[in-house]
Design a protein that fits this description.
The chain has about 450 residues and is α/β, with parallel strands linked by helices. It has a domain of about 190 residues: 3-Layer(aba) Sandwich (Rossmann fold), CATH 3.40.50.1100. It has 17 helices and 13 strands. The strands form three sheets. A six-stranded mixed sheet has the order 4-5-13-10-11-12, with helices on both faces. Strands 8-7-6-9 form a four-stranded parallel sheet. Strands 2-1-3 form a three-stranded antiparallel sheet. Helix 5 crosses helix 9. It is globular.
C-alpha cells in the first residue's frame, strides 16, 4: 500500500520509528509519541473521493471494511494487512437522536453517539482493534512479546481481553480492587486474561504497568500508546459521516486519562487537511468533580496539568488524577476552541436519571457529559439551535449497580431526586389496581 504511518515525538524531537517498534515514549525527551501519516500521499484523493470510498464500505459484510475503524484503514493503520487485522465489527454505532431529552433542555438538535453499543461494551474497542492488530504484525516480524497488558478501571481491560483472546495473545490486566463494577470485572476473567486486583487506584495500577513495560515484561496497551488513539479517532469521523459529512457545532466528551480528547481532534484534523470538512466543532471535555485535574488547569489558565489524588466517583472509569494524555488534550482544546467543565456526583446521578427517563440508558461517565451539557445550556453557552453531540463512552448495562443504588436511594452523599423504586405488592388484583390508580390518577 502506498500510504504509511510511523511513530514520532509529540514534542517535535527528530526521528521516526516503525509502529511495530516496542516503544511508548520518545527516546530523546522521554515524552509522548504520536502516530503521523504521510499526508501528501493521502492527498492523492480529493475529500469527496474519500467520503465516497468510506460510504461504500460503511457496515458492509466484506472483511475488514465492515468495521467502522478498518473501513477507514488508509487513515488509521495502512501498513496492517488483511490477515493481521483483529476485528470484532467495532464502530458503526448508533448516533441517537435524543429528541425528548433535548427538548427538556431547550435543544432541538441533540445527539448521543452510543459508542458502548460495541463488542465489549465501550469505545475502547475502537482503539484495541488497532493495537492488537499491530501487535500481531510485530510478532510476525519477530518481536518478542510475553504478554499484552494494561492498567484499567474496567473498560480497557474488557476490550484488551476480548481482542487478545481473539488473537490468541496472552493478556494481563491490573485493576484497582473493589473499584469497578461486577460486569467489568467478569469480562476479562471470562476471556481468559490474567486479572490482578491491586490495593490501589487506577494511577497506582498505571505506575506498575508502565514499569513492567519499561523492563520488557509486557507490551503496554494503555492510551499512552498512541496506537490506541488511531482507532479512537474514527469516532469523530464517523459522527460527521452519519450527518452526511456535516460538522456539528459541539462535541461533549467525558474523559479521565484524556486520550480520547486527542483522538477526536486527530480525526477532525485529518478530515480538514484532506478536504472533507472546512471547520472544527467546539470540544467540551467533561470531568467528574472528584477527578478533575484538567478542569483545574483549564480554569486556572495553566499550560500544564498538575496531577491530583482522585476521589471516589460513581464515574469510576474516569477516576484518574494523573492523566497520561494531558498534553495531547491541551493541544486538542486549543485547536478546537474548547472548554472544560465538571459535574458533581449529584449532578451526574440526576442527569443519568433524567436521560434514562426519556428512553436512554446511560453509564455514569456519559452522565458526566450530560450533566455538563445541562450546565452549559443553562448558562447559555450552548444555544437552542446548536447541533450538539455527546459521546457516550460505555454501555449502561455495565453499571447496573449504579442504577439500582440510585433508585433505591443508596448512593452516599447523593439525593435520589428522580428515583423510581419498584412497588412490591402481594399477588392481589385489587392492590395492583390501587397502585396503578395511585401512580396514574387521571
Amino acid at each position: 500500500m502506498r500510504y504509511s504511518a510511523v511513530f514520532q515525538c509529540f514534542s517535535g524531537c527528530p526521528g521516526q520509528w516503525a509502529v511495530t517498534e516496542l516503544m511508548y515514549t520518545c527516546p530523546t525527551c522521554g515524552g509522548l509519541l504520536e502516530v503521523v501519516h504521510d499526508m501528501d500521499a493521502l492527498k492523492d484523493k480529493s475529500g469527496p473521493a474519500w467520503t465516497k470510498l468510506f460510504d461504500e464500505r460503511y457496515r458492509v459484510n466484506q472483511w475488514p471494511y465492515g468495521s467502522g475503524v478498518w473501513g477507514k484503514r488508509e487513515w488509521v493503520m495502512p501498513c496492517v494487512s488483511d490477515d493481521e487485522i483483529v476485528s470484532m465489527y467495532e464502530g458503526g454505532t448508533n448516533l441517537f437522536w435524543a429528541d425528548r431529552y433535548g427538548k427538556q433542555l431547550g435543544l432541538n438538535d441533540l445527539w448521543v453517539k452510543l459508542c458502548g453499543n460495541s463488542h465489549s461494551g465501550s469505545f475502547k474497542d475502537l482503539g484495541m482493534t488497532v493495537l492488537v492488530s499491530v501487535v500481531r504484525k510485530a510478532i510476525r516480524e519477530g518481536k518478542k512479546i510475553k504478554a499484552v497488558a494494561c492498567a484499567s478501571t474496567g473498560d480497557t481491560s474488557a476490550a484488551l481481553a476480548a481482542f487478545g483472546a481473539a488473537a490468541n495473545l496472552p493478556v494481563v490486566v491490573l485493576l484497582p480492587r473493589g473499584k469497578i463494577s461486577t460486569a467489568q470485572l467478569v469480562q476479562p476473567i471470562a476471556h481468559g486474561a490474567m486479572v490482578l486486583g491491586l490495593d490501589t487506584d487506577f494511577d497506582g495500577c498505571m505506575e506498575i504497568v508502565k514499569r513492567l513495560a519499561e523492563e520488557g515484561l509486557v507490551y503496554l496497551a494503555n492510551s499512552m500508546n498512541p496506537l490506541r488513539l488511531e482507532g479512537q479517532k474514527t469516532v469523530g469521523i464517523e459522527v460527521v459521516q452519519q450527518f452526511g459529512w456535516e460538522v456539528p457545532d459541539w462535541v461533549i466528551l467525558p474523559s479521565g486519562n484524556l486520550g480520547n480528547a486527542s483522538a477526536l481532534y486527530a480525526g477532525f484534523k485529518m478530515m480538514k487537511e484532506l478536504g472533507v470538512i472546512d471547520r472544527y466543532p467546539r470540544l467540551v471535555v467533561a470531568q467528574a468533580e472528584n477527578a478533575n485535574p484538567l478542569y483545574r488547569a483549564f480554569v486556572a489558565g495553566q499550560k500544564e496539568v498538575t496531577p491530583i489524588v482522585a476521589k471516589p466517583t460513581q464515574a469510576t472509569a474516569i477516576q484518574i488524577g494523573n492523566p497520561v494524555s494531558a498534553p495531547r488534550a491541551l493541544r486538542a482544546l486549543e485547536a478546537m476552541n474548547g472548554l472544560v467543565e465538571q459535574a458533581s456526583e449529584q449532578e451526574l446521578a440526576d442527569a443519568a436519571a433524567r436521560a434514562d427517563a426519556t428512553g436512554m440508558y446511560t453509564c455514569p461517565h456519559t452522565a458526566v457529559g450530560l450533566a455538563v451539557l445541562e450546565k452549559l445550556r443553562a448558562k447559555g453557552t450552548i444555544q437552542e439551535g446548536d447541533k450538539v453531540v455527546c459521546i457516550s463512552t460505555a454501555n449502561g448495562l455495565k453499571f447496573t449497580e449504579f442504577k439500582v443504588r440510585y433508585h433505591e436511594g443508596q448512593i452516599e452523599g447523593v439525593n435520589s431526586n428522580l428515583k423510581n423504586p419498584a412497588v412490591l405488592l402481594p399477588a392481589d388484583f385489587g392492590q395492583v389496581v390501587d397502585a396503578i390508580y395511585k401512580r396514574f390518577p387521571s
